[in-house]
C-alpha cells in the first residue's frame, strides 16, 4: 500500500490530491456516497503536506456534506502550511439516518498558489460522535 510522509512521520495513505495548477487554480475532491445510520457520527482523519514539496502558501483541506437536494455544508476545514500531519474532524449528526455525499476537498492556499500542494489524507474513519459533555 502507498504511504505518505509528512514532517518525517509516515502513514498509510488514504488519498493523495494536488489541486489543479495548469490553466488556473482550483480544488480537487473525492466523493463518497454514504447511507448514514441513525446514530450520530463524525468523520475523523489526518491531513498533511507531503515531505519534499515546495512550501508554497499551504493547502486548504475541507470536508463537505452534500445533501440529497444538492445543498453543500462545510463541516471541517484546516489550512496546512508546514510539512506535518494534522487532525481534521467534522460532525455528521445533522444527517443521521440520511443518504449523503461526503466530499473531501484539497484546495490551494490563501494566496491561490498551488505550487507544492501535495495533499495527503490518512486514517479516514467514521466514528460515533462524542457527547457534548465530553468536550
Sheet having the most strands = 5 strands, antiparallel
* Strand arrangement across the biggest beta sheet: 1-2-9-4-7
Shape call: globular
Averaging pLDDT over every residue, what do you get? Answer: 91
Report the span from N to C terminus: 35 Å
Low-confidence stretches: none
Number-wise, the strands total 9
Q: β content, as a range?
A: over 45%
- Rounded to the nearest angstrom, the radius of gyration is 15 Å
Number of helices in the DSSP assignment: 0
Helix and strand run: EEEEEEEEE
Pairing-aware structural class of the strands and helices? mainly beta
The oligomeric state is: single chain
Helix content: under 10%
How would you briefly describe this protein structure?
The chain is mainly β and 135 residues long. The protein contains no helices and 9 strands. It is globular.
Descriptive report:
The protein is an all-beta fold and 135 residues long. The protein is 0% helix and 55% strand. The protein is built from no helices and nine strands. The protein has strands spanning 3-6, 9-17, 28-35, 41-49, 59-66, 72-80, 85-91, 99-108, 119-128. The strands form two sheets. It has a five-stranded antiparallel β-sheet, with no helix packed on it.
